[in-house]
Amino acid sequence: MSEFISTFITTMSQYPWLFVAISFIFAATIGSFLNVVIHRLPVMMKREWQSECNYYLNEYHPDIVKQVGEKRLAKPIDAFPEKYNLMVPGSACPKCKTDIKPWHNLPVLGWLMLKGQCASCHTKISARYPIVELTTGLLVATLAFYFGPTTQFIFASILTFFLVALTGIDLDEMLLPDQLTLPLLWLGLIINLQGVFASPTDALIGAVAGYLSLWSVFWLFKLATGKEGMGYGDFKLMAVFGAWLGWQMLPMIILLSSLVGAIIGIAMIATKKLHAGKPIPFGPYIAVAGWIALIWGQEIINWYLSTLV
């Protein structure tokens, strides 16, 4: 096995274009699964919350509770009876419930073959699906070109997959699930024990500083206005980038994400696609800024420092 891996790495190093192409195809395929994560994980979370709320709020309600010995049992929860997770049920048209054939699940190509509609009832399929697949493929292909077949490429790709899922969920639900951010945080700290992207000390300080940087802004804004300017998921995502890239990258990530967020927000208000005062997700801007810092962060910092000389 080790000999095969060594041969593969050698071959990919000799033919970088092949490595980029293989990375694109593999990542686009993962992007197809990320579409499932983006859609289903929030539903799974809501069902879990509903189940917990029903259990704790209904357990002692006299109208729906029956006495069984010394135990009080709530009525069964039937709001979501079917088994539902990232694997079950299989992909199907949301309107006619027709199962999607395997070849129609091919990244980008499947959507093009179907001409953007269900093969059975011709209901339109959102262009978002191939966009996520194509974007994931292009991002990882960029990593392959920049890092080559290295350990850094492997972990940077994992980070990218999580960021794509987090961005899609935050855009839909204004939510950055702990199920994604916390494993990323721990993984960043673990891999940097070997200094993959930053030293262990810089990673640990970065995780703490990343969280506290936005946490402090949150409370200052709340004390000044009485309003909450962002969610705790944003704090955790900044902690993730601190753990992965070290504390040195945090100022640039905060500045870049704030700048991009402000520009897009103003543009949306100007085009009347966003009403003033309506919240917008900040996680996607942090994700974009952090991904840029992953590749070009040091070059950007060096360029900025050179302008000060």
TrEMBL record:
EC number annotated for this UniProt entry: 2.1.1.-, 3.4.23.43
Cellular location(s): Cell inner membrane; Cell membrane
InterPro entries, A to Z: Peptidase_A24A_bac, Prepilin_IV_endopep_pep, Prepilin_pept_A24_N, Prepilin_peptidase/N-MTase
Membrane topology per record: Multi-pass membrane protein
Predominant cellular place of this UniProt entry's protein: membrane
UniProt keyword annotations, A-Z: Cell inner membrane, Cell membrane, Hydrolase, Membrane, Methyltransferase, Multifunctional enzyme, Protease, Transferase, Transmembrane, Transmembrane helix
Catalytic activity: Typically cleaves a -Gly-|-Phe- bond to release an N-terminal, basic peptide of 5-8 residues from type IV prepilin, and then N-methylates the new N-terminal amino group, the methyl donor being S-adenosyl-L-methionine
Domain Prepilin type IV endopeptidase peptidase residues, every copy: 158-266
Domain Prepilin peptidase A24 N-terminal: 25-146
Segments passing through the bilayer: 15-38, 153-171, 180-197, 203-225, 237-270, 282-305
Purpose: Plays an essential role in type IV pili and type II pseudopili formation by proteolytically removing the leader sequence from substrate proteins and subsequently monomethylating the alpha-amino group of the newly exposed N-terminal phenylalanine.
Family, similarity comment: Belongs to the peptidase A24 family.
Protein name: Prepilin leader peptidase/N-methyltransferase
Species per Swiss-Prot/TrEMBL record: Shewanella aestuarii
Source taxonomy: Bacteria, Pseudomonadati, Pseudomonadota, Gammaproteobacteria, Alteromonadales
